[in-house]
Amino acid sequence: MSDTPVVTRFAPSPTGYLHIGGGRTALFNWLYARGRGGKFLLRIEDTDRERSTPEATAAILRGLTWLGLDWDGDVVSQFERKDRHAEVAHEMLARGTAYKCFSTQEEIAAFRAEAEARGSYAVFQSPWRDADPATHPDAPYVIRMRAPRSGETVIEDQVQGRVVIQNATLDDMICLRSDATPTYMLAVVVDDHDMGVTHVIRGDDHLNNAARQQMIYDAMGWKIPVWAHIPLIHGPDGKKLSKRHGALGVEEYQAMGYPAAGMRNYLTRLGWAHGDAEFFTSAQAKDWFDLKGIGRAPARLDFKKLENLCGQHIAAGDDAALLHELEAFLAVTGAPALTEAQRGLMLAGMPSLKDRAKTFPELIEKARYILTSRPILRDEAAEKALDAVSRGILQSLTPQLRNASWTKEDLEAILTGAAADAGIGFGKLAAPLRAALAGRTVSPSVYDMMLVIGQDETIARLEEAAA
Known about the structure:
This protein is 48% helix and 10% strand. It is mainly α.
């Protein structure tokens, strides 16, 4: 396999949003391919025409794009390849690895009822498996795989290890229905083969499918890909992830204000490990990611860990890139867009805003002093901080600030001097200053706010609060 370029794929069904588990599967495939100079392909498994919708496909593409997972080439539609799938089923017929089955639904149901009456589970054994083609009626038929009846099928899985399935438990599965539409099992194998997929990395709920799909590879004489079936994600209580655990869709996490880099880091770490590394960049993840590091036990969603990592990524993020992602967050949540003036101030204030903000809503709360305009709306604590004494101090400050050179050193000298003149520590003066500038008593540093909004606006806000 080492000389063959790595090709991975993500193949979701477009029946709803991009599930958080699907997002992680896509991420694992993307990391594995990108870290080896390979290709990451995207296929939409839209053969279920009743449940597949263009809206769901669009939601999946939006989710992958937000996560930063770029794919190579065009998105493949499985439905559009149905003629190719049928062609392979007929080729299997010609090879003798498949056969025409004329059994009706009633006959199959009667076979199963008889087996149940005997108290045994029996896989359906078609009477047409070894029938002489001369006896074939002129009637609708399905094409069934001629599965081995004895022995075992072995799946060499990179995560689950060696998995052995007894062939006696596998039926002659249908590959092509009587209306000439392919089954999921056939379509997946044909698509993976034709797309040159070398590594199938997917949820372990597909592990049983691998045995049946391997038979199709064998029937066509095709090379079997490397299998890697990854455990599913569970909720914090260890139970299968469901709505009661919170957000399930990738786009919901964007709307909650988690940065994509933090989300990638968290999902990479969810069920995979590289030593003790918790915080890492996408470049490091691409270098490090391998199949050996994936655990066999289901991973548990941990929102505290997610927030912690997201906070680290915001703090380490590039200011302009953070602003760009913040604006995308505002757009998806329907919040007003930033004005040109606000954009400039946000960029100037980003070094102090991104410190200790775990999500974009927290960052916006810290940026309230930038996003608000006079008259400043103050919360209850801010109103309390602006008592008569505080207002008097603010009033005496403004003439000194008019003559300041507006550097941090100059401002520090003026403010600490004002606090000393009033016989109070600077901490006592900081609360009314925050209340005047931000309308809050919790905000970024007073000096940071004054330097970002500038001399004229600072003085105007102090005068408004002192009035």
